[in-house]
């Protein structure tokens, strides 16, 4: 979750551009950004984004964006910490790895490279009507995503008010190395070089690939309040159908004292309906407050997995005095996120509770990303204009995710162990905008 938030913010941090640049229409304008994200001993990511806009004579706009990122490191496999070392089979079925006693089990095979292309065409249809249509392509080693989107915006009240309707549709294909695990199947642990290993491992798989389809609807309203303030309100509805289980996540099966007896593969519903509301306000203070711009937003999300989340986000754009003919700014950022757990989230289960009968009534996942948590992001961005009129900025942020117990009893063997470890990350970003 932290990584997606960091990556999504690369080119969406709201840099205010001076009026002279806004007048440049018929040439290409480019933005580039490099982001480095690190969770220390866990996931590390490096991402490069290049985005270009070209405005044509009739106010048509073409936007092209290329994203390339690389992820390495170790990710939590879902198993609970134990007082003794634990041995796990790699997702491919080839080889094993060992987690030391007292440490959160991490799968150290996590490595991927993603290439993503997005294209968007926007043009006026008639006075006060603007439409856009776009396409999406993303490819990873074991994942392919294709999508289309469209949006219609209508201005009224002297263009001080805008209503928009957006639609999007994505189809994703999973082809994980080792195949798709069978829900509730026991992880096979042993000598992977044995003659019967491949045959036994195949019994825990149900196929080599699965698909997922996502359809989104977004209704938006933007209102200019006065010359200093603008507001935005959105409502979105998302329908996801298909394979929503994480093929790399497992759940620990414990005895009553809390000692692991087995590991089973997780199982999630094959559909999810999400809704969210979003409100944002931007206010431009007068010169007595250095022409600062406050941007504050709130988002509430709920779904039929019983996950509910609240997100408060704010930035303060503060122009600094010009030096050597260069205009610069400082932009502090703070974000708070709170989430409740999915109804089928379990940090572990006990022997006898992992029923294999009627599995549709026994969804289970120990993935902390759908558990109860709070998260805080603190950071600052510094940017300035270069002598050639282009813009450069640097951003540094600290992210802290704090999972918590959603009301589960802890057996005695886990009482002195860290069942819900804090996740910390550092985010570093360089951005360069040019004509």
Q: Brief overview, please?
A:
The chain is mainly beta and 435 residues long. It contains 3 helices and 23 strands.
Descriptive report:
The model is unreliable at 2-25 (pLDDT under 50). By secondary structure, the protein is mostly beta strands. It starts with a helix and ends with a strand. The protein contains 3 helices and 23 strands. It has a 16-stranded antiparallel barrel with strand order 1-2-3-6-7-8-9-12-13-16-17-18-19-21-22-23.
User: What is the terminal separation in angstroms?
Assistant: 33 Å
Looking at the chains present, what oligomeric state does this protein adopt? single chain
What would the average pLDDT be, to the nearest integer?
90
Q: What percentage of residues falls in helices of 4 or more residues?
A: under 10%
Strand content: over 45%
- Biggest sheet architecture: 16 strands, antiparallel, barrel
Strand order in the sheet with the most strands: 1-2-3-6-7-8-9-12-13-16-17-18-19-21-22-23
Give the low-confidence spans.
Answer: 2-25
Explain the layout of strands and helices.
Elements (H helix, E strand, L loop, with lengths): L1 H7 L10 H4 L5 E11 L5 E12 L5 E16 L9 E4 L6 E4 L6 E21 L2 E12 L2 E14 L4 E14 L5 E2 L15 H6 L2 E3 L2 E17 L2 E14 L7 E5 L5 E6 L5 E14 L8 E11 L4 E16 L2 E14 L9 E2 L22 E13 L5 E13 L19 E12 L1
Parallel strand pairs: 14-20
Antiparallel strand pairs: 1-2, 1-23, 2-3, 3-6, 4-5, 6-7, 7-8, 8-9, 9-12, 10-11, 12-13, 13-16, 14-15, 16-17, 17-18, 18-19, 19-21, 21-22, 22-23
């Amino acid at each position: 979750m932290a990584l997606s938030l960091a990556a999504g913010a690369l080119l969406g941090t709201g840099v205010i551009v001076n009026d002279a640049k806004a007048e440049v229409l018929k040439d290409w304008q480019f933005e580039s950004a490099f982001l480095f994200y690190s969770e220390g001993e866990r996931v590390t990511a490096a991402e490069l984004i290049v985005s270009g806009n070209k405005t044509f004579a009739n106010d048509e706009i073409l936007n092209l964006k290329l994203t390339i990122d690389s992820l390495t490191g170790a990710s939590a496999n879902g198993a609970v910490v134990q007082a003794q070392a634990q041995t796990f089979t790699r997702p491919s079925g080839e080889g094993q790895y060992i987690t030391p006693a007292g440490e959160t089990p991490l799968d150290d095979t996590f490595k991927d490279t993603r290439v993503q292309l997005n294209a968007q065409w926007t043009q006026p249809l008639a006075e006060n009507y603007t439409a856009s249509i776009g396409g999406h392509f993303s490819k990873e080693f074991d994942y392919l995503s294709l999508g289309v989107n469209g949006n219609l915006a209508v201005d009224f009240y002297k263009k001080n008010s805008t209503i928009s309707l957006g639609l999007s549709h994505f189809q994703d294909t999973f082809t994980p190395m080792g195949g798709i695990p069978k829900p509730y199947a026991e992880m096979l642990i042993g000598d992977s070089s044995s003659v019967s290993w491949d045959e036994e491992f195949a019994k825990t798989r149900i196929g080599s690939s699965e698909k997922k389809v996502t359809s989104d609807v977004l209704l938006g309203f933007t209102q200019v309040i006065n010359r200093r303030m603008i507001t935005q309100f959105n409502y979105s509805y998302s329908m996801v159908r298909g394979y929503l289980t994480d093929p790399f996540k497992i759940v620990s099966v414990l005895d009553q004292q809390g000692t692991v007896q087995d590991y089973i593969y997780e199982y999630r519903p094959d559909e999810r309906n999400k809704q969210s509301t979003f409100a944002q306000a931007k206010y431009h203070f007068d010169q007595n407050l250095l022409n600062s711009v406050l941007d504050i937003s709130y988002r509430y999300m709920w779904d039929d997995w019983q996950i509910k989340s609240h997100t408060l986000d704010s930035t303060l754009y503060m122009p600094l005095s010009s030096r050597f003919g260069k205009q610069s700014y400082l932009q502090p950022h703070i974000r708070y996120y709170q989430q409740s757990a999915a109804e089928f989230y379990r940090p572990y289960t006990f022997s006898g509770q992992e029923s294999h009968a009627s599995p549709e009534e026994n969804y289970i996942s120990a993935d902390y990303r759908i558990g109860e948590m709070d998260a805080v992001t603190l950071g600052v961005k510094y940017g300035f204009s270069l002598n050639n009129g282009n813009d450069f900025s640097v951003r540094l942020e600290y992210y802290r995710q704090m999972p918590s117990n959603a009301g589960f009893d802890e057996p005695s063997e886990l009482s002195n162990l860290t069942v819900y470890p804090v996740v910390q990350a550092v985010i570093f970003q360089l951005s360069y905008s040019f004509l």
